[in-house]
Amino acid sequence: MTGFVAIAAQELRITLRRGESVLLTFLIPLGLLLFFGATDLLDVDIDEFVPALFALSLVSASFVGLAVATGFERKYRVLKRFGATPVSRLTLIAAKTAAVAVVEVVQIALLWVVAALAFDWSPDVRWAGFAVAYVLGTAGPAGLAMLLAGRLRAEATLALANGLYFLFLGIGDIIVPLDRLPAAVAGVSQLLPVAPLVAAFQWATGVGAVTTTDWIVLVAWAVAAPLTAARLFTWEER
Predict the structure, then answer these.
(1) Structure confidence at residue 9 (pLDDT)
(2) Phi-psi region for residue 45, left (φ > 0), alpha (ψ -120 to 50) or beta?
(3) How many angstroms separate the most distant Cα atoms in the chain?
(4) Global pTM value
(5) Are the C-beta atoms of 71 and 149 separated by less than 8 Å?
(6) Contacts of 94 (CB under 8 A, 6+ apart)
(7) How far from the centroid of its chain's Cα atoms is residue 97's Cα?
(8) Rounded to 5 degrees, what angle do the CA atoms 178, 53, 233 make?
(9) Among 86, 84, 137, 149, residue whose Cα is nearest residue 107
(10) Is 220 exposed, middle or buried (0-12, 13-18, 19+ CB in 10 A)?
(11) What is the pLDDT along the chain (238 residues), one digit of tens a residue?
(12) Residues 197, 118, 15, 162: what is their CA dihedral angle, to the nearest 10 degrees?
């Protein structure tokens, strides 16, 4: 437990030092909120759009940011020292996920405040459901990030993580509603972690509904992705 806390604290310090990366993960969801909320381009419902951006914020930090940072840590052998210590791969993954989760709290708080001030957003929050969605929505993408970063070269991780990010943005029920997508695409989207996370956050903030299948998908990603990453992660590129 001491090792986990120490690594998580170190990871948080390192994450906050990557100013440009943190700024990007903050600015993209915030920029989308201000742009689409203030224009009629997509005629978004702000009550549905803000919780969707919460999901996007989690994916920005726990998937893209974590995958890219970890990939280059492996490339430059920053993580190699852990291979000679009692620290397990699962402990490293859990610590990195915990550090990212702290950053996400600030992201969500910023979006929340801006939405409330700029668009008079005042949700009727189911706090327990919100917390569960936050935990599952962090663990699943973070596990997937560590899986990619732990097996691929840094450049491949960078390209694939960003490619999947734009895929999630396009078909994850964030900007384009699922009912406007082809049925096959919508079906695939509902098996990925983002669309169910959007549904969970929307339900937790008093709009829409979340299904049992959505929760099952979120739990499956939150459990399977980190465990698979812990099994397959390698400390350095080969």
Answers:
(1) 86
(2) beta
(3) 56
(4) 0.93
(5) yes
(6) 4, 8, 226
(7) 10
(8) 90
(9) 137
(10) middle
(11) 667 888 888 888 877 777 666 767 788 899 999 998 888 777 789 999 999 999 999 999 999 999 999 999 999 888 887 777 778 899 999 999 999 999 999 999 999 999 999 999 999 999 999 999 999 999 999 999 999 999 999 999 999 999 999 999 999 999 888 989 999 999 999 999 999 999 999 999 999 899 999 999 999 999 999 999 999 999 988 7
(12) 50
Cα-based distances in Å from 58 to 29, 97, 182, 217: 10, 11, 26, 16
Supply the DSSP string of 73-125, one letter for each residue: HHHTTSSGGGGGSS--HHHHHHHHHHHHHHHHHHHHHHHHHHHHHHH------
Distances (CA, A) of 181 to 176, 184, 190: 8, 8, 12
Structure confidence at residue 64 (pLDDT): 93
Q: What are phi and psi of 87, to 5 degrees?
A: -65, 125
- List the alpha helices (DSSP H) in the chain: 2-17, 19-38, 46-59, 66-75, 89-119, 127-151, 154-171, 183-189, 194-204, 212-232
